Amino acid sequence: xxxxxxxxxxxxxxWARIVIPIAAIVATLILSAIPILIAGGNLWKSYYYLFxxxxxxxYNLLETFVKxxxxxxxxxxVAFAFRAKFxxxxxxxxxxxxxxxxxxxxxxxxxxxxxxxxPIIIVAGFLAGGLWAAIPAxxxxxxxxxxxxxxxxxxxxxxxxxxxxxxGPLQQPDSSWPRSxxxxxxxxxxxxxxxxxxHLGIPLAFLAVLIIWFINKxxxxxxxxxxxxxxxxxxxxxxxxxxxxxxxxxLISGGLAGLAGVxxxxxxxxxxxxxxxxxxxxxxxxxxxxxxxxxxxxxFSSLFFSxxxxxxxxxxxxxxxxxxIAEVIQGMALMVMLIFLLFTExxxxxxxxx
Amino acid sequence: MSNNNQPVVxxxxxxxxxxxxxxxxxxxxxxxxxxxxxxLGENGAGKTTLMNILFGYxxxxxxxxxxxxxxxxxxxPKDAIARGVGMIRQHFALVSSQTVLENIIVGTGSGxxxxxxxKSARRDIVSLQERFGLQVDPDAKIWTLSVGEQQKxxxxxxxxxxxxxxxxxxxxAVLAPAETDELFKTLKILVKEGCSVVFISHKLNxxxxxxxxxxxxxxxxxxxxxxxxxTDARELANFMVGRELLDNFEKKHITAGRAVLTIENLSAxxxxxxxxxxxxxxxxRRNEILGMAGISGNGQRELAxxxxxxxxxxxxxxxxxxxxxxxxxxxxxxxxxxxxIPEDRMDTGLLMDLTVExxxxxxxxxxxxxxxxxxxxxxxxxxxxxxxxxxxxxxTANRDAVTQSLSGGNLQKVMLARELAGRPALVVAxxxxxxxxxxxxxxxxxxxxxxxxxxxxILLISEDLDEIFNLxxxxxxxYxxxxxxxxxxEDASREQVxxxxxxxxx
Amino acid sequence: xxELFDIAFISGLIGATxxxxxxxxxxxxxxxxxxxxxxLNLGIEGIMLMxxxxxxxxxxxxxxxxxxxxxxxxxxxxxxxLMAFLAVDLGLSQHVSGLGxxxxxxxxxxxxxxLYVGSPTVxxxxxxxxxxxxxxxxxxxxxxxxxxxxxxxxYVAWLLIPLMSILLYKTKLGLKIRTVGxxxxxxDTVGVNVALTRTLCLVFGGALMGIGGAxxxxxxxxxxxxxxxxxxxxxxxxxxxxxxxxxxxxxLGALIFGFLDGLQLRLQxxxxxISFHLxxxxxxxxxxxxxxxxxxxAAVPAGLLKPxxxxxxxx
Lengths: 354, 506, 315
Prior knowledge:
Chain A is mainly α. Chain A has helices spanning 16-31, 33-38, 43-56, 58-83, 91-108, 114-143, 147-166, 201-218, 220-230, 232-237, 242-269, 280-290, 295-319, 325-345, and strands at 4-8, 346-350.
């Protein structure tokens, strides 16, 4: 607008792909000083408690992983979908679908052999999330309905389904609050490390990273999904069945988000409540974009976010800065990352004006 | 033709670089009042870039521009228009869903205050139409107009803004011969009324026909400047290419075999639900190149899309080697061994943001050789890509280079490599050399002839009559969805084909 | 059941329809402005939230409700400017830019609110807008009382609908906006400043979105809660598609949504034995159904979603 013009630049060497995200994170942390100062917090104390609260003690560190787990899953879910240009903004609803299924099964599977309970719940949760994502995918491929809008609207539909069930059949019998009964013992995710909340879901999430990375890089499906994301018309020209690709992408994406829901239910809450997700599905979007849609990028950005979220709790207690600073930092990180990514492809050129 | 010594436009020392290409290298260009100056050169020579700089659409890295004697600094088309410079591009800058009137007056200050004054605008436009002989219905929506009529709207747009320096970029590329004559008449009227025209083209005969003076560009430099009366086509061609053009191709005489492609009673609608193809019947044989001539917009796109599997017809049948083609299924076309070259390679045929290798394997990535249980066999794929890159001399850093970085000619080579690798029985090529430089064009022609020798049947759809006449064994013309005429190449004359292209049957 | 057809019920329903539709009308008009110029603004939900929060806080601290509305509009303009910077000047993906702004705004709104208000047990409230009854018009039988007893912002929304139509279809600026949205190359080559046009549309669209959000905390309710917007921004996005990018038709969609919202509230009062949550779902489901019926022949502005850069050299 003001005498500058963006022009394409020569592609940056490979190391840029790692340095740029790190630079973005550093820049974000520096920019975070602004809201911290506005909140009246002492800068150095705030940063200290932010990091200490997240990484300073064994419990804190493990807690950071605990918080990272659902973020990682929804981040993977969104990244996987976005790669195929399936704009899945519905991870939140798909997460709830998973949690809901896990609840329904978790309170009623008391009678079957304990060994089977978790596997059944996990598979069912995955399918529930996957199906909830498949609906907008079908709408997109068969009826050309915009996926941004349909996935978003379904989030609200799912919240209300959950509400209807929590005030209805799933409600704990003697309670007037919208909460379910506790799930049976066998449905709990085992805690893997003593004196912490480090649970099964965390290695599952890491496993998911590996699996998604493998799918993307080594399988024909990963190739097809990439092609569809880059140019659906050309992919169709080349004989790829774009409808099938998008549907499977939606199933996997929704399934991952559903697993995030299962994890939150079976590991943390152990019963279904309305607030089971403080927006993990939406955070997943930021995480996915921050990670440039790459599974390893998603891994690191979910850890970064988790550090910020967990650390913000401690920081808030010790300095009075509101916990919502976590969301502010998240939003800033995204914009910083976008801008940095832009400048890997373009540079500014000064233009003489009249 | 005026002989003022003060040029109405003077560009000196113009240099323009894009990334690693120098599109303009120290160019000096002048336009004199009342003349039609042709800017000649092959595709990629830098003609459009130079004029985009004059129009303010691009900025030059070095150099100066003088318009009507005053030095100017153009940072946007607005500045150029203010000085009387207008540009009509190859792809018309018109909004198809809006009316002629809206397209002409957008952005002008016609009428009073903030409201559109359609009445007085209409009055002004009608008087312009009479003065310059450009009749179009002001309330028609652009998409209903023919290409020639749309071009008239573009000219009216410029005249409405009191443009007197008009740049026309390849204006005849989309016109039938009759419409070209009308355009030339219009240009003469424009000049008589005080305009000066820059006529960008790569078509020698037209340039000889209409221009007063010719400037030849090659690889971003001015290589010649001549008065039209003092030169001829052969000399110009040599300037354009820098060497003696190959006169004719080595086309072996081969007897065509049995039919490879049979089209029966094919009918189809276009995107506006108007008839694009009318009960079409066509046969292409082995060892034969069937050249389908015709101006764009007469059904070629729809025909190609049907054959490629991107569109479903309303009736008819297509058979490839007696096997029926399943409509709307690219997979069917691929499995019937059709090599397909779509006319807009970047949008339809290539995955620009992926690597060269990923593009090469688009169609066969899921065949037995390249994958097993869903996993891609990297080694085999790498070997395959490397072989193709070598065989087709694709200029690229390596197989992992992003396809976006390749030049137009190399993009087409990637497409060819992919489509011809499987030894297709039928090749359907739509405008395969559009926008490419002569070197790339020659390569592609050679490859097409090679396939012909190998036993393929080739349907060549092209607007370029030279290309049609050089390569075809038989020529047909597509006009308004029907085949006009079907002759052997030796028996065909350009006049006859030109008449068919304009819809004249006999 | 016969109470359903009681005059009072219908009158109340009409009034409620207008009320519930108001924020969506503002949001939809704001989004139409943006999308007609070629930019999909997914920041709408966040901008509405910031508008709601700002309007509330400013009203709370200044005591003047119209100052609150003004502040909400200003905040909306600033966020619209930010969206313009990301999506127009930098040419970043419109999906990503918009979502980024929504996420950032959500965090920011809560952050600022907490900073200012802390965490009291009882959330602060303000004295909201009062409904105004228009003299003659409200005497019209059946529809009068409901339709013409509204908040002033609702009357403003009504005026904006035809104004937006006139702007788009009858003014020079409107033609420029539409051309930029259909084909920015065309606009650029006739001297229209594409970036500036898009930016202005995003800024003024943002103002409308901010006001729409403020309506929810200054009229509809009188306090600020984190879920006050409740997805209405996204509904507006759907209404733009439903209304085929036309202000009148988009407003019609908003009215339908408002009707369903109002109906749902009233039906609950009748103790009809279906869960309250299922009712809440209906408007969203019906929006999806509406989208399905419309998506086939959508008249999408052809230049939507594509960033415009002049010096991209093709292959």
